[in-house]
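Risk register update: the risk that structure generation would not scale has been downgraded. Supporting records follow, first protein first.
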Amino acid sequence: MPELPILPAYPAPTAYTDAAAALAQVQALYQLSINHLRQAMRCFVAGQPLPGQSDPAVPQRVRACYPMVRLHARSRGPFAPHSESHLSYGFVAEPGHYATTLTRPDLYADYYLEQFRLLLANHGGSLEVDVSTQPIPVHFSFAEHDHVEGDMSAERRQLMRHVFDLPDLAAMDDRIANGTHMAAPGEPQPLSLFTAPRVDYSLQRLRHYTGTAPEWFQNFVLFTNYQFYIDEFIALGRAAMQDPASEYVAFIEPGNVVTRRVDLPAEAIDALGNPPPRLPQMPAYHLIRAGHTGITMVNIGVGPANAKTITDHIAVLRPHAWIMLGHCAGLRNSQQLGDYVLAHGYVREDHVLDEDLPLWVPIPALAEVQVALESAVAEVTQLRGPDLKRVLRTGTVASTDNRNWELLGGNKAQRRFSQSRAIALDMESATIAANGFRFRVPYGTLLCVSDKPLHGEIKLPGMANHFYRERVNQHLQVGLRTVELLRREGTKQLHSRKLRSFAEVAFQ
């Protein structure tokens, strides 16, 4: 008979009517689990007996599990007195039993506190904090700068799977977000779009793809498909750090390189930053503002696969909005190079989300983001009325996974673009918007016309350089102003009920 796994000494489940107390218990349970795994891993790497191991000669499994929170809702929400019924989250739609596993309560402390507070306000009763049966994969227990696997032999690494739980893909899918999750009889309904293993997986991937720690990400995210925009953002970020009056307090670059505002002291974490020998695949830069209300900008590169990859992972951070600022092909003769395109609809020919979000699902424009984008263009360009309409065209954007669509025979692509009334074409915008819809993250798209292939105006080196000099800085300023407007209007306005499904989870 196999030996039972070595577990921490977990306390009994506890009910809480105070959100802060519930969060404190989640933090304590998580820390207990992580300390248990880290101690065991240190012994394992050193070839020492595991804490609590009965026979050092026989490998014994070490296990720790994620904390979880349960809600037993006896009423529909949100109908309690003083409930925040205008919100799109913070309540469950039907009476019943709900639960979710939780991770990184240090990173998500403010987020969890708000979700707990709203659930208690909208449903009364209590929240039960317990330890789940979902094991924490040992890879997700490592501290930010741990590299323990590099210290082990190949044989030792092979043995690791017999001692520790490894990441399990079956626990990390997107069925809840996709609306295809079916709870087994007696199983609680989900409280969150993401399970704890799914969150941990994305946090690991964010480090890899962006070269920055998840802790630095801000709640407003700008995506671009050109390094020119990043160069401007870097210049702006560094300039802001030289201004004691700036609302931003730090600027983070790949390798977790920290530049503090000139009037602020360095912190201990700053010394851990190190510029990478080469940029990561999708480098991220962060303008830090109090309460994670600053701006993150990511160069996602070219193509819908990149766009899906990065939004799949950033979604677990639950940002307030993400916006695409990039280049596109103008499809109308009246457009000029440097004109702006505000997407109010999308043709999805990207093929990367077909299994997660069927093509028959419409991706609507979100009024709050649309208004902010148009207002920002007007403010930055100082144009109004017909003059604004001359440089800003609203319409459908088509996104394709075929970079050389121009070479398709028979004008098939052109015909589809005409039938859909598309005014611009790119490779990323529809994917970013569709994943925003899928993950309930408010989204928007403002593109800049960089060529007109249907009209013989293709990118030439000299023309492109002039175009970039003329428009990139202005386009970025529009994006930054859009974030300011959204921030000013408030996030409660952004997270509207239009992205809710019939049976929506309670967590934002």
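Supporting record for the second protein:
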Amino acid sequence: MHHRPSNTLIMEQKLFIYNTLSRKKEEFKPITPGRVGMYVCGPTVYGDAHLGHARPAITFDLLFRYLQHIGYKVRYVRNITDVGHLEHDADEGEDKIAKKARLEELEPMEVAQYYTNRFHAAMHALNVEDPSIEPHATGHIIEQEQLVGEILGNGMAYESNGSVYFDIEAYNKKHRYGVLSGRNLDDVINESRELAGAGEKKNKVDFALWKKAQPEHIMHWPSKWSEGFPGWHTECVAMGRKYLGSHFDIHGGGLDLVFPHHECEIAQAVASQGDEMVKYWMHNNMITIEGQKMGKSLGNFITLEQFFTGNHPKLTSAYSPMTIRFFILQAHYRSTVDFSNEALQSSRKGLERLLAGYVELDRLSAAPDGQVTKAYVEELKGKCYDAMNDDLNTPVVIGLLFDACHVINQVADHTTTITPEAVEGLKELFSVFAFGLLGLRAEATSNAAREEAFAGAVDMLLEVRRRAKEAKDWATSDKIRDELARLGFEVKDTRDGATWRLNK
């Protein structure tokens, strides 16, 4: 399970988050003191995770880490959509997973499993913690049927040819459809009138709660209405309610889900239980590429694996998982981020600078009368908490960590001095904010270049030793060999010159 902080910070830290529902920042006050229920929409598993998927995963991972850090007990639910999500997010067309299964000649569950495994691998590479519960839509068909039955019973849905649709007009007489997106029902109805005949629906805007399966549709389950499958919007409400109860604190996801997905979720919750289920709605903004949203539906996406390998025409090099994580955290989660190689290269440099600063801490010589004191670190720490409490302002936190690096480098260059307490304080600052909350970690990939540099230095020393031996300067020759041996380098003299290996 997750590490619990030793001292509870809940009392000390006042977290403010932007609530899409009220369009303002609100102080976070959970329904049950000390506990948080959080639901985030996970991927539809019909293709590889791309940069657009990394953003909500990292954003809500950050929130998950921070809530736990300040002392809350968090139940974090992130679903896997493995049925019901039709092409173009519509009620017509093929199921995205079934379509992929047909093209690949696989059982749909094989497709879902394969891409779920790959999604998990990508998440672990990005150091995204696993949620507390990861329910699958296909594992909760009964709960979804129950939800549809409740909405029908309350007169806000109707059956048509074996399918069940949500009746937006009936709903709108009692409640308001559009509270999250700010859309007016008349606008929504007028927009939909332009589309050809409504077919099975009373209104084009009514959305499917249960779809009757066509004979060619391979994913279906029995219900009292028909052999069919649930609507995409139904899943999250049924699973959120099952694991977090009929009222919970936070529901998150990408901004592209506000309408229709989350709007429909609110309507279903209210239609089934009479009031809203979620207190705070949080949305991360989009990743754009050449100014357009990056997404599977637009076909302009770059998968995470392509970033990690560099295997994509738009990439000038490979970018490590931590570079990607850092790149996403360098922007506030509510701002758009435009992908470019230049931006990623600058993130890579920034991350290296941050990690190098942390490594340098161990080498600093501290003095009791140092100019940089614990007070400086405490001030820095206070500012980091202020930034986190201000709607998770990670760019400011990163900026403050860079300030710390600047001071570390000044001490290393002997332009200032530092007390031992301040060194320990800075180590703790990095451990809490850079590693614990931002979830950054040193990567093995950066070691290759370092190894090369070290090897070059050892070779150069052995060349100096060879020249010393030629000049019969045995003292220098032995000193180099003994010092290298002390550091763990074993030197062997052979007929073809000296060889070495590291015995560490």
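The mean pLDDT is 93. On this basis the risk owner (M.S.) recommends closing the item.
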